[in-house]
Task: structure prediction
Amino acid sequence: MLIAHLTDLHVRPVGLPAYRTAETNMLTERAIEAVLALNPRPDCVIISGDLTDNGLIPEYENLKRMLSRLPMPVFLIPGNHDRRENLKQVLADYPGLTQHPTYAQWTAELGPLRLIGLDTVLPESGAGRLCTERLAWLEERLAEDQARPTVVVMHHPPFTCGLGHMDRIALIDGRETFVDIIARNPQVVRILCGHHHRPIQAIVGGTLAMVGPSIAHQVVLDLSGAQTAAFNFEPAAFHLHQWLDETGLVSHTAYVEKAPGPFPFLPDPDYPGRPKA
Ligand SMILES: [Fe+2]
Ligand SMILES: [Fe+2]
Result:
């Protein structure tokens, strides 16, 4: 079982960049190319929010057109840049998006794994929220199967990471209860997040929470606590999670852009470990 975890596409209507600088439509197309070029191809793709930049219908229509190139199931949750009503309307045929009457959250069975997508959107806010209704929903879903390894997907990271301006808009509301729920459910083998636009990991409730890098622009690495938000074009990437019976879930980073190589490991004649002729 191989899962590609992409995040923070910030798709715009056809022909428009994001923030007048980031060609997010082109960057999304490029990431889709990179997924299609993988060997083996992932069994599914998860995209953890900020699917579009402004949650507009033409943005979701553009996103839908681009995602139609992916032949495997694509699981979507919203981020703070999305509008869940528009997402649920335009991409209604995507798995799970109409499962919940209000929120864009769902469960899915995926070979040996169970996926739970969680909607952390607080409308009109950059920060994330898990209200009592969503927390109760999560607890009920986790109680349905405590034996199966489970991956929880959510946009807003549920931990403080040291990027000052992003910590202000992380999962602010409901975090403590969320962490308690995760701690009581050791079948949760990963929490996959987006939002911070760079790869960050921490242990949350006893399990590994991973923020995926954006496939578009990255947030500047600044651990000074400064509240100034800025982005750059460090290499775009995504995560690949492979279930291996010997280990469990193993997580890799795949870069979107091609790098020089591959080159063979030709042994240097002076290498001390070289087999004697
Ligand atoms: Fe984002
Ligand atoms: Fe976000």
About this structure: Residues 24-36 form the longest helix (13 residues). The chain has one domain: 2-255. The helical segments are 24-36, 57-67, 84-90, 132-144, 164-167, 175-183.
